[in-house]
Amino acid sequence: MGKRKPIDGSITIDLDSPASEDFENQPPKQCARRRRIARKQDEETECSTVISSCSVETIPCDQKSKKRSKGRNDVSGTKKKLDTRAFDIHFKNMWRNFSEDKRTPFTYFDSLWFSAYMSSSSKECMLTWIKEKHIFSKRYVLVPIVYWRHWSLLIFCNLGQSLQSENSPPCMLLLDSLQMAGPRRLEPAIRKFVFDIYKSEGRPESRQSISQIPLLVPKVPQQRNDEECGNYVLYFISLFVQQAPENFSMKNYPSFVSFFLVLLCLFMKRG
């Protein structure tokens, strides 16, 4: 594994940026209204629900402006529970701070897309929006997941490569700061999600071959309370984008994960 540059222990986030900034790619017009309705329903549900362990707590509408601090803040200063709106603000500001060469191999999904996909009424729209991301031309795809009131991070690696590739075959990483919750319980849904993505893109791979794409769940630092899961996902994204190898493969997976884990522990201690 090649030599990597040391990272800065503080990842800056500009909280002055508006929450309504557009995604990298706008969804098709025929799905836009459904998306607005889905997001509105999600926010209303969050506002009316008292949330428990590792939940997604919504910031009251009249307090949102107060939550934006002046200047720049780092991830380590984000200690409260995150709802999808707050997560997206932090993520997009962090994304802008990455250099262009770091962003180029990546694309990402909206934090609501996976949970919306799980709703049969929204599935087709989700798959349509995903097409606009051109994920099979990217080395990595970041998929923040908020499901069962808990945040985790799914990363697609090399989806555009042949399943028979010896050097860089497709694989998936699932990073979860609450192992006791059993991250593998998401595997059936993730595999169905991936199969539907392949199918909607008209890819030739069979269901059987797609089902054999490895889903790896490496050990990562665990959250210390029931409020940190969203913040941990931001940590995971920040370090992975900075340290991801040019060619991720199953051969270098153990050494990369060990290296990544050490950096992650150091980064979080400094936070």
Automatic annotation (TrEMBL):
Give the GO terms filed under biological process for this record. Answer: protein desumoylation; proteolysis
Keywords for this entry? Hydrolase, Protease, Thiol protease
Which Gene Ontology molecular-function terms are recorded?
cysteine-type peptidase activity
User: What are the residue boundaries of the Ubiquitin-like protease family profile domain, all occurrences included?
Assistant: 49-240
* Chain segments carrying region Disordered: 1-44
Q: Which PROSITE patterns match?
A: ULP_PROTEASE
Q: Which Pfam families match?
A: Peptidase_C48 (PF02902)
Entry similarity comment: Belongs to the peptidase C48 family.
Q: What is this protein called?
A: Ubiquitin-like protease family profile domain-containing protein
The record lists the organism as Manihot esculenta (Cassava)
